[in-house]
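Case 344 in the screening queue. Each case pairs one protein sequence with one candidate compound; here the compound is fe (ii) ion. For every case the pipeline is the same: read the inputs, emit a complex structure as tokens, and attach any notable structural observations.

Predict complex for case 344.
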Amino acid sequence: MPHLTRRPFVATAAALSLSLLGLPALAQEQVLNIYSARHYQTDEALYSNFTKTTGIKINRIDGKEDELVERIRNEGTASPADLLITVDATRLEIADKLGLFQPVKSSVLESRIPAALRTPNWYSFSTRARVIVYNKVALKREQVLNYEDLANPALKGQVCVRSGAHPYNLSLGGALIAHDGEAKTEAWARGLVANFARAPKGGDTDQIMAVAAGECGVTLSNSYYVARMLRSTKPADQEAMRAVGVVWPNQSSWGTHVNVSGAGVLKHSPNRAAAVKFLEYLASDAAQLYFADGNNEWPVVASVKTNNRALESLGTFKADALPIGDLAKNTVNAQKVFDRAGWR
Ligand SMILES: [Fe+2]
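Case 344 output:
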């Protein structure tokens, strides 16, 4: 969990930037203030379509996840923010634990979003999977079919992976604890660390490149990074993707770990009705397409089908059915387990 310090000037900066955006709003003008840690090109259409259909003007502050959470905390009851949009169950859980959200009940959201992908205080709007990527020369597919396999001593010196403190790995840790228990997950993390080809550095894409180059044999990556590289027209990316194989992990056990992008209405939201309306809009067919496809993810609404050839080329898979809220609750423990195992 990031250490959050109190920095009063952040609140001043927030007030200033919102006033530059046109706040305080005219009394009769409906507005919605969104703090977003998601910023993709297609999200622009997402926001402008909402304004077009509802007349509600959106003021948006883009920022890094941890900074936005810190800002909302510092602004306290005076926060102009109505909604927080962010990625990863771990981050949503951190925000929720800090008491930043308020419960939302909506029959639209309940009928559109599967129960396993919502909690009382926040909702998921797209999903991504954590997959195994291996070097086809260095390893056989059969050696890396499960997350648990990456701790096998036979893979000594073969594992590259980003920091264990990163939310993507903490969320996976939350799933492992739920399915395998804490003791087994700690033994797994120790085995993983013992197999490292190098100390954790860089993001998921850096690990894929290292696997392709033969610096290591196997890594973990979010599915959208794989899709992004498959869609890339850069010769280096295409060459890298020819060198690697992609595995949907744990198909013969509990399924591939799935994480989410999500959003929640903030506790001190001044425009609550508009905020709920926006969440319901995010669950609409058109918005689901934009939201998921903008980052090569999958919609949460089952009836909405994307046309993403890169993702489709990877085939279908069995996803972990663990409710996202249960997984999120385990992430604090996952951090402790990974710390003890020395996965920094
Ligand atoms: Fe990412």
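Case 344 observations:
- Confidence is low (pLDDT under 50) at residues 1-16.
- The longest helix spans residues 167-180.
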